[in-house]
């Protein structure tokens, strides 16, 4: 649905997007991650035809953003980061205006539908300028949805919302994901795991990694760690494990009288069998033994801190 | 076309919802009334010619205030991002905004019909209705020119105030030019380089002086040259405004 190839965007000397190439298939929900200033918003703005790329091409739904921006805009629903609205217009009036602008055929019915979907019906006569952040966000989402676009591009849709609103918004996005291709930027990591089936991490304008959350975690969170909990004398357990040749270090974690160890191995060697055997020889029962799987946060930190 | 209508409608709506537009309207009508009552007298010919002339001065201050928000405010508040990512062309956008402001200006002009009524009702001879009509035509053409100029200024600035002040200053200068420029080019018996420069400057000034182009209309002369002058300048500034809106995206 979205193909970007070698996108470059410079602002004077500053390189905001640096040869970013990526691909989003139809029906995917892609989480676009990156630290502040990584180029997330700029990339989204190129895709929505708000600004042209300095170099490179992007094709959305088969239309080139540079050569056929009007066709691209027709199939895209975009919610900018700051959710700008006309303060002097009422919610319903504003959404009807936007629907007409986007060529919706049955404006009244369609606006009624999206207001229902985004829980806006109660505030439809309120002035946009007097809405709280949460409601503004919903109006922005309703606006993005109103022409039933194939592609939804949401720039930080849950920022500034309270926990309840965040949950509602996430549920709504999940629901939308059934019929639309969604690309959303965020820097709230757990959110990605909750709503997105694909993740793209961007750092310093470059796509640092892309794939499903599980793929990324196995590929990048190269924590070769093993978590061990055993019953027995802590010091001697530690010595016994450290004696295994592949083990690089053993850290003891004091956890309410339990013997929990974090075992780091060289080259990610799997020494679980060895640990289990050696402890069994000594008669210390193993209570828990598993690989420490990295979280998305580990991946994020690993990829974005590397050069920092 | 449908987009154009939508943008125009929204622009008219925003004008009517803005307190600034109403203040401009009040000031404009007050000025119109004051000028009218100053020039109307039993001896004078019944008509609005001097009123229209001084009205163009009032307009050079009122119009930039009317247009200052048009694009600058969208840019400041970020709503420009919504407009330029919606399936609307920059031409539709600029043209819609222009037509919207022109409609609002026509709306401001409607109450001045009272003065025309006064002339018809109280003057023994009555005003020449075609002269009145051509006066209105000239005023509307002048307004179109000024509105397009103001829109262009609004499109190149982020600060409304800057756009308003530059607009007022420029239009006021053009108005002054129309009044203080000598009727004939500076004469010299022996043409020197300097005198030729002076003459060229005079010609440019004469061409740009709005008052000179407006004046025939208030006399009742509808000259196609003058219509072309106003319309081509309007088109020129609208073109520049479209260019300003689209190139701003490149930054």
Distance between the termini of chain B: 29 Å
> What is the residue-mean pLDDT of chain B, rounded to a whole number?
88
Largest sheet features of chain B: none
Any low-confidence stretches of chain A, pLDDT <50, length ≥5?
none
Portion in strands of chain B? under 5%
Number of strands of chain B: 0
Task: State the shape of chain B.
Answer: globular
Q: Total number of β-strand segments of chain A?
A: 14
Beta content of chain A: 25-35%
Helix content of chain B: over 70%
The biggest sheet of chain A, with number of strands, parallel, antiparallel or mixed sense and barrel status, is:
6 strands, mixed
Distance between the termini of chain A: 33 Å
- Largest interface, C-beta closer than 8 angstroms, per-chain residues: A-B, 27 and 25 residues
Mean pLDDT of chain A: 86
What is the number of helical segments of chain A per DSSP (H or I, 4+ residues)?
Answer: 11
What string gives the helices and strands of chain B in order?
Answer: HHHHHHHHHHHH
Radius of gyration of chain B: 20 Å
- The SSE string of chain A, one letter per element, is EEEHEEHEHHHEHEHEEHEHEEHEH
Describe this structure in words.
The complex is a heterodimer of chains A (308) and B (251). In chain A, helix 3 packs across helix 4 and helix 8 (213-220) crosses helix 11. Chain A is an alpha/beta fold. Chain A starts with a strand and ends with a helix. In chain A, the strands form three sheets. In chain A, strands 6-7-8-3-9-10 form a six-stranded mixed sheet, sandwiched between helices. A four-stranded antiparallel sheet of chain A has the order 2-1-4-5, covered by helices on one side. The radius of gyration of chain A is 25 Å and the shape is elongated. Chain A has eleven helices and 14 strands. Chain B has 251 residues and is an all-alpha fold. Helix content of chain B is 78%, strand content 0%. In chain B, helix 2 packs antiparallel against helix 3 (49-67), helix 3 (49-67) crosses helix 11 (210-219) and helix 8 packs parallel to helix 12 (224-248). Chain B is globular, with a radius of gyration of 20 Å. Classes of the chains: A alpha/beta (308), B mainly alpha (251).
């Amino acid at each position: 649905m979205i193909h970007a190839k070698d996108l470059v965007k410079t602002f004077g000397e500053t390189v905001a997007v640096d040869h970013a190439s990526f691909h989003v298939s139809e029906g995917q929900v892609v989480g676009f991650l990156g630290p502040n200033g990584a180029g997330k918003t700029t990339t989204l703005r190129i895709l929505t035809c708000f600004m042209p790329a300095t170099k490179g091409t992007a094709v959305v739904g088969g239309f080139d953003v540079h050569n056929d921006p009007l066709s691209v805009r027709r199939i895209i629903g975009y919610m900018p980061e700051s959710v700008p609205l006309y303060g002097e217009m009422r919610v319903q009036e504003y959404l009807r205006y936007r629907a007409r602008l986007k060529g919706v055929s049955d404006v009244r019915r369609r606006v009624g539908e999206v207001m229902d979907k985004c829980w806006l019906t109660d505030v439809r006569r309120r002035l946009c300028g007097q809405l709280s952040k949460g409601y503004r966000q919903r109006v922005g989402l309703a606006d993005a949805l109103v022409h039933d676009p194939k592609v939804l591009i949401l720039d930080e849709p849950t920022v500034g919302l309270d926990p309840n609103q965040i949950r509602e918004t996430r549920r709504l996005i999940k629901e939308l994901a059934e019929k639309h291709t969604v690309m959303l930027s965020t820097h709230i990591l757990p959110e990605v795991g909750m709503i997105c089936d694909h993740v793209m991490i961007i750092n310093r304008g470059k796509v640092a990694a892309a794939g499903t959350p599980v793929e990324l975690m196995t590929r990048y969170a190269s924590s070769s760690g093993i978590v061990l909990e055993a019953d027995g004398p802590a010091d001697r357990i530690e010595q016994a494990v450290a004696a295994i040749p592949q083990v690089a270090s053993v850290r003891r974690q004091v956890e309410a009288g339990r013997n929990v160890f974090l075992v780091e191995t060289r080259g990610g060697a799997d020494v679980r069998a060895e640990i289990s055997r050696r402890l069994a020889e000594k008669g210390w029962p193993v209570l828990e033994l598993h690989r420490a799987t990295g979280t998305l946060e580990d991946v994020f930190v690993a990829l974005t801190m590397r050069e920092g | 076309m449908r987009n154009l209508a939508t943008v125009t409608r929204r622009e008219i709506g925003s004008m009517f919802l803005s307190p600034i537009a109403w203040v401009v309207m009040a000031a404009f009508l007050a000025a119109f009334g004051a000028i009218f009552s100053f020039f109307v007298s039993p001896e004078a010919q019944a008509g609005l010619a001097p009123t229209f002339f001084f009205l163009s001065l009032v307009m050079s201050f009122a119009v930039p205030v009317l247009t200052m928000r048009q694009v600058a405010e969208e840019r400041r508040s970020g709503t420009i991002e919504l407009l330029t990512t919606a399936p609307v062309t920059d031409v539709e956008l600029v043209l819609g905004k222009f037509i919207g402001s022109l409609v609002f200006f026509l709306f401001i002009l409607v109450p001045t019909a009272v003065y025309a009524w006064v002339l018809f009702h109280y003057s023994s001879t009555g005003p020449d209705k075609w002269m009145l009509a051509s006066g209105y035509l000239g005023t509307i053409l002048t307004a179109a020119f000024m509105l397009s100029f103001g829109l262009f200024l609004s499109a190149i600035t982020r600060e409304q105030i800057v756009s308003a002040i530059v607009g007022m200053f420029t239009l006021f200068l053009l108005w002054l030019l129309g009044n203080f420029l000598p009727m004939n080019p500076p004469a010299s018996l022996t043409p020197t380089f300097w005198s030729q420069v002076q003459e060229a400057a005079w010609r440019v000034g004469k061409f740009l002086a709005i008052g000179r182009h407006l004046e025939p209309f208030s006399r009742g002369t509808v000259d196609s040259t003058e219509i072309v002058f106003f319309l081509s300048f309007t088109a020129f500034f609208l073109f520049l405004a479209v260019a300003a809106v689209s190139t701003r995206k490149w930054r």
